[in-house]
Amino acid sequence: MEKIRSRQVLLDELDESMTITGYLSLQAPYSPATDKACQWLILNFKGATASVERAGKKGAIPVEKLQPGDVVNRIYDFPPTLAKLTKVSPALLDNLQKRGFTKFQIEEEVHSATSPRQLTREHQEKVAEASVFIEMVEASVATHKEASGAVENMLDDARLGKINAEQVGSYVNQICEDGKGEALTAMASLQASDQTYAHCVEVGAIFQTAYLEICRYTGNKNIFTDLNQMTLAAFMHDFGKAKVPKEILDSTTRFERDSKEMNLMQSHPRFGAELLTDMGLPNYVINMAHYHHTKMDAGMKSSYPPADYGDVIFETRLLALVDVYQALIGKRKYKRAWTPPETIRYLASLSEIEFEESLYQHFVNALGKFPKSSLVQLSDLRTGFVMNVPEDKNLLERPQVAVVLDKDGEHFEHSELVDLSVELDLRIIKELDAQAVFGQHALDVFCRINVS
Ligand SMILES: [Fe+2]
Ligand SMILES: [Fe+2]
Q1: Which of 54, 66, 133, 195 is 20 to 30 Å from the Cα of 176, by its Cα?
Q2: Predicted confidence pLDDT, tens digits, the chain (452 residues)
Q3: Ligand 2 center to residue 196 CA distance, Å?
């Protein structure tokens, strides 16, 4: 079957199966354009759009408005009357060479073994799923903010001896709304929060996402009575910090081993277990608060309180892994935010030291090697956000990617959804830090993706 694919090519890669949709790189005399070059462009490209720099300002103008001195960066949006300048032909190739055009955006038909109807329907389903996911992330921004603020209030209340179970429940309910857990998991890396209180919310969401997926694909029994209890258990894992003075909690100094401050900090799992016992929660929920810092190698400095690893239930071990994952992808005063893929790779190095290898494998199978919302670069140098975790666990390196930037870093208005499990000539060549590429706007850029 045939499918239309859009990509960038150089002059000597053009052939007659292609239609040019943009002239991207133009040599002199277009930069800056001479009087003659302007006349020629207006005559030949009337009705198209030019991306120009004029007096230091960048903008898109109709070609007819070009003036000598403009730096013409690209020409695109051709009306049908310009078909002679968009369908590649020997005459056009000759002309392009003479006129100094060097790089092009083209569309071409590609052949695939899949039947046309199947591919179209499957692709539409994937696009629909990706669109719903993007909408969920946008709809969860307020939930994340409110829930993080509520955690701070709850810890303050707990300091005064009040635990408002209803308030906890109402925020946990929101995280449990269909799809919100996954959306908040994605948001954790898109905004790399530095709020201590967002930690509980994000750990709750990531735990829910990972645990549900592990139970689904392994068929293992879910021990929680319902989704709310599951999320609540992870959400409240650090609530013992309510019994640690705020100055110690918020301090940026590293406390000495065995100091009073360090001992208090390291008591938060025990304090948490006491708090949850008082709330009448079941033993497995208490186990999660009590042992979420207990490592496989109990001799490690960072392992507390001492316990037999055999008494640490699977859910607690998974929570411990999620706890470290969230801390690394978040920003802290003493470190930058790590990208989800590099964090996943780093966690592999802790296997059989902090937790068993099989637990790590489950976590990777659930979140993928490139977790949803990771920013990645493809081998054709386009950049995009990961939209799914592949169902086939052998294809975790081949997720679906919504491309947002072309190889020169220019934004696409519409994001093509590239399914790497189908497009085998493409692959991910590296992960990128969404904050480094888009600054504070990473979450906005993600929410504005218009996928097709
Ligand atoms: Fe903790
Ligand atoms: Fe924690």
Answers
A1: 195
A2: 456 677 778 888 898 888 888 888 887 778 788 888 888 888 888 888 888 888 877 777 888 999 998 988 888 878 777 877 788 888 888 888 888 888 888 888 776 544 444 557 888 889 999 999 999 999 888 888 888 888 888 888 888 877 777 777 777 888 888 778 889 899 888 887 766 678 999 999 999 999 999 999 999 999 999 999 999 999 999 999 989 988 888 787 888 888 999 999 999 999 999 999 988 999 999 999 999 999 999 888 889 999 999 999 999 999 999 999 999 998 877 778 899 999 999 999 999 999 999 999 999 999 999 999 999 999 999 999 999 999 999 999 999 999 999 999 999 888 999 999 999 999 999 999 998 999 889 999 999 999 98
A3: 9
Contact 270, 283 (CB under 8 A): no
CA of 291 to the centre of ligand 1 (A): 9
Ligand number nearest CA of 207 is: 2
The ligand placed nearest to the CA atom of residue 289 is 1
CA of 388 relative to ligand 2 center, distance in Å: 26
Closest ligand to Cα 200: 2
Measured in angstroms, how far is the CA atom of residue 292 from the centroid of ligand 2?
A: 8
Give φ, ψ of 431 to 5 degrees.
-95, 155
Residues recorded for the chain: 452
If you measure from the C-alpha of residue 158 to the centroid of ligand 1, how many angstroms do you get, rounded to a whole number? 16
How is 69-94 classified by DSSP, letter by letter? T-EEEEEE---GGGGGGTB--HHHHH
Of all ligands present, the nearest one to the C-alpha of 206 is 2
122: helix, strand or coil: helix
CA of 216 to the centre of ligand 2 (A): 25
How much distance in Å is there from the Cα of 368 to the middle of ligand 1? 24
Ligand nearest to the CA of 324: 2
What is the DSSP annotation of 27-65? Answer: -TTBTTBPHHHHHHHHHHHTT-EEEEEETTEEEEEEGGG
| 53 exposure class (CB count in 10 Å sphere: 0-12, 13-18, 19+) | middle
Beta bridge partners of residue 62, listed in sequence order: 49
Global pTM value:
0.73
Burial zone of 25 (CB within 10 Å; 0-12 exposed, 13-18 middle, 19+ buried):
middle
Which ligand is the nearest neighbour of the Cα of 269?
Answer: 1
Token pair for 383: 């950049």
